[in-house]
Amino acid sequence: MPQNTFPAIHGHRGCRGLRPENTLPAFRHALALGVDVLELDVVISADRQVVVSHEPWFSAAICRTPDGLPISLETGLQHNLYALPYATIRQYDCGLTRHKSFPEQQTEPAYKPLLREVFEEVEHYVAMHTRAPVGYSIEIKSSPAGAGIFHPLPAEFFELVYAEIVAAGVGERTTLLCFDKRILQVAKMQAPGLPLCLLVEDDRPVEEHLQELGFLPAVYGMHHPLLTTGLADFLREQGVAIVPWTVNNPEDIVRVLAFEPAGITTDYPDRLLALRH
């Protein structure tokens, strides 16, 4: 594949295969490697701060309590970020415990940062190094079942996240991602110029998903095994970019590259960067 057609490389949760996910060390390392886009997830704290985290609770797989103790699977949901002020959230460690699925991951002390802190860190890094500005793919972790328990209702959730994007001045480089179509519908009304990505992980027809959404998103982000020639052709005809996730294995990378997607989301951006170079 020619250099000028190589898809944008999206570092999943920074670079989860190499550093603790969704932490400043992961984002810094992804930038040093040379990713084009940082993919990250956001939740809301009890004091309405936008926190970078995949789950709206502290995962037993990677996090420890402020006392340094492991979190059991049985008690994980009790460490609900939506019920904790950010000052408390910051006391947990989510970098010293290596995720068992990622043996190459280098551990180090790390906390769940605020979204604004990530913006500040990344923009400062770009300004201090000779590299192009980075894009942001921000997934809002919302679900109908979680409203009022693990996160706010869609309108408030979007407003809190969008306010941080606007304050950081990165709207032109940000795409908002979500499985929850209600979030994207609110975003379409409140910020019509913001690129939106519908995330999909089931094998229902694409036409059904788009009909439920009610508009064509800028990006369709499918779980990579769902990517077929028919799906890719249909979306291109509609003018919708494709960014499959999470593509890690060499054989999957080769298969997905053949579809010439707009971007590829991966836990191992170093593997894609090696092919691009």
TrEMBL record:
SUPFAM superfamilies, per the entry: PLC-like phosphodiesterases (SSF51695)
Domain GP-PDE residues, every copy: 7-276
UniProt cross-references to PROSITE patterns, sorted A to Z: GP_PDE (PS51704)
One GO term of the biological process aspect: lipid metabolic process
GO molecular function per UniProt: phosphoric diester hydrolase activity
InterPro entries in UniProt: GP_PDE_dom, PLC-like_Pdiesterase_TIM-brl
Name of the protein in question: Glycerophosphoryl diester phosphodiesterase
Organism: Hymenobacter gelipurpurascens
